[in-house]
Amino acid sequence: MQHQVKKSTLSHALSVALLGMISSTAFAQAQTEQAAAQPATEQAQASPSASSEQVTELDRVVTTGFRQSLEYSTQAKRDSTGFTDSIFAEDLGKFPDVNIAESLARIPGIQLNRDVNGEGLNVAIRGLPNSFTKTTINGASVATASIGLDSTNQNREVDLNLFPTEFFSQIKVYKSPTAALTEGGAAGVIDMRNVRPFDRPDSQLTYILQADYNDIAEEASPRGTVIGSWLNEDKTFGVLAGVTSARGKLGVEGYETVGWTNPNLTNAQCGNAAAATAPGAFPALGQPCNLTGGNGWRIPDSVATTPYTTAAGLAGQTFNAQWLRDHNPGLTTQQIGEALIPRLGRPVHMSGDRDRDSFLGSVQWRPADWADMYMDVLYTKAERSNDRIDMNLIGRNGAMIPMNMQLDANNVVTSATFANAQFFLEARPYNEEVQYWQVTPGGTFYFADDVKLDVAGSYSRSWMRRDSPTILFNSPFTTIQYTNNGDIPTWTTDLDLNDPNAGWTWTGGRVWAQNEKRVTETKGLNASLQLGDDRNNVVFGLAWDQNYRTIVGFGDTGTSWQPYALSQVPTSALPGYITPGPFGFVSVDFDRFMADTNYAFYRDNAPESSGANTGAPTGGFDEANTAAFIMVNGESEVWHRTMRFNLGMRYAQTDQDITGPVTINGVRNYRTLTGDYAEWLPSFSAAWDVADNVVLRTSASRTMTRPNPSSMLPSTTFTDQGAQIANQGNPDLTPYISTNFDIGGEWYTGGEGFVGVTLFNKRIEGYTFQGVTTRPFTSLEIPFESLTEAQQIAINNRGGPNVATVNVQQQVNADAELEIRGIELIWVQPLNFVFEGLGFMANFSKLNIDTIGKDSSALAGNVYGVSPKMWNATTYWENDVASVRLSYNWQEGAVGTGPNQQGIPFAQLYGEDRGQLDLSSSYTLKGIKSEPQIFFNVLNITGEERRSFFAYDNAVNDMYDPGTTYTIGVRGTF
Questions:
Q1: pTM score > 0.90 for this model?
Q2: Domain that residue 373 falls in
């Protein structure tokens, strides 16, 4: 149970200032009203000259297309009080980029996270993970049930690739908050505004037809969009409707390891003093043969006599310390024990369909000047399939015998002969359906020139169903030549891995049925009352929203479908269900295998499990959030220059239910834990026009992000077959609170051009890390009989369930602060003096992250997936008919995980630096009805891969090649 109300020093200070600002704003309004009553001549005499009072108008050039979008963004930034960035559509249905996430990458401080197929998935702001970013549509909270190709999405992240860019007219990023913004984004808020009928002065119809071609998928992906808007003769009522449909093809080639590991040498293989009395036992961790942990590769003491082992000269051998040294000349026993190889070295291929259909409807009604009402409805449905296959060289829990190994200075194996090697084919196809719909009614009502009421409601629902069976069978034993030259490990073998009759067997294999279902739901109501004009006002507001999510995994891990499948397709019949693959190794005839093993029945009747095969635990949360705020906007003169300010206070109360399955005394039930907390969230921003075209800004604020609900579930699960490590939820986690300070400014050079710099500092309290405690097994309330056979054996080997202890891991709030300091630079510059229509834009961001406080050492290194340096550059040229744009996005590699990967204390995963070059071009056919515009785009021109590493640059953790995508299409408007 949680009961918390916090009010910081910053809150107290701004509360006092707020009262002062309200009175000064009221005084400013009184002056304005008094001046309005004066004759014009008196106003002119009493006021400073216009040249000293107003900002000089930017040099205006009539622009269209991308330059027009940039100019809108520049003007919006200049007019804002806080630190915001905006991206505008070039026209109805014409967003500057093919993907919303990729559009946001043009903003400094924004990190683009791509899926393994290269598609922009979501974004992170200013050094905090993507779950710290609040995403809204028309100000209403967004929660999606979708997940990426290799993601779990069990926190609060939102996948932006679910929403078609054609439906949106503007995206605004708030890096400094106002009290009116929905809380939840400690890093920032992204608000997407869909198109509406009154966005254009007249009725119109826009069409878009295009086809994509990816050189990995080697198939065309058609896509079409139609958006129409109608206005009545009086322009008081309008209707807009749009549909878009995409039939995408997936193609990804890659390589995965699931980590790296090293041998677990026995006393006999170590050659230590205990070899004589306990040759098959293992030396303790840190002893000469098992120095650093890991120990997932078990070199056998001997092998059975088989045709293979006899031919390979292995039969009758004893693989002790002397044998290993003799057959690996130049290496010590200690080096052999530290030799790093892939846990599961596997080439992987993904292919399938990625279809999406979406609808947008919008109605606006302005019966008079005093009212503007709207209703927006957004619906999208995605159907995705992925015929994923991979061929695994078994390292961890395997029995390879090393010969002629060569190691580098970090003990990474660079070449070797591995006898007694074995492969397995893993087929993990999945079919997925995702739906999302949202309705957002609202309106603005003017009761007088200086009294305005805004009201809005929202409801959204998203659900996902994914079924993901696993089919796994093993090869016969063989000998391979292994090479790791720093790119990805490769091997050669006499065994033909692409031959269905190579001797594949179910021994050690699996046939599992696994499903996952997710539902998210949001509801919201908010109202705000503004007293005053647009420049000087006081705003009071109330808001309520509810967020709900449930994730349920279903799994038959070998208990039902597998026995039946193996009875229908025994090893003797297996070759008939195996086909040669196009990637150098076999595949599975999925349709035939599923039909002959009655997969649909076992899929639909799979029992509920403690988690999904994506790694997301079963459970959910239900949050009700109530907020009230007061906000003051004002404008005044400082040294004869205009200063704008925004000052506010938001109070947010959260009532939270966390629900998950628990099993006690053999009975599985759902347990719900309740909690509540409240926060005061002050905010202040000011912008000062210190010169005609120079604006200085500053802001101070307190923001929050609610904790990861998946880390709070009341459940305990084991993560290893040795039952040594258990993960447990922590329902007492508190929100992340960030205290933020920003200072910066811009010099506006004309048109879309400006140069800007921002310095920012964020101090986050309540950041979490993985705490570990040692507890008796009995304290976990897990029935011993519910463990797997291997886990029960491991517990018994440690004295039985009444004696054995377990290392329990759970997320805990650190008694420390995470400090993020950063700089953002941006330069947008038209180059008409060089060549008419030419220009460039570039930005650079750099972060420094430190920890302060008691738990600072534990917290250090726990910010994952954050790129410390990023830059973007775009060169563009366009005239009234043609446009060309070349963009490059670069991100420095980020630390992906904490240490102790695969039981090796120093090992962390980290990403490789990556840059991507994209091209956009178009030509408009003037004089033809609808003025069709032909466009041609190329994504990832140079075919850059996405790669991560395990501790060292030549120990690749995974690599994915999304290929290059070419797009050709036409758009026009009637």
A1: no
A2: 68-256+349-394+424-476+500-973
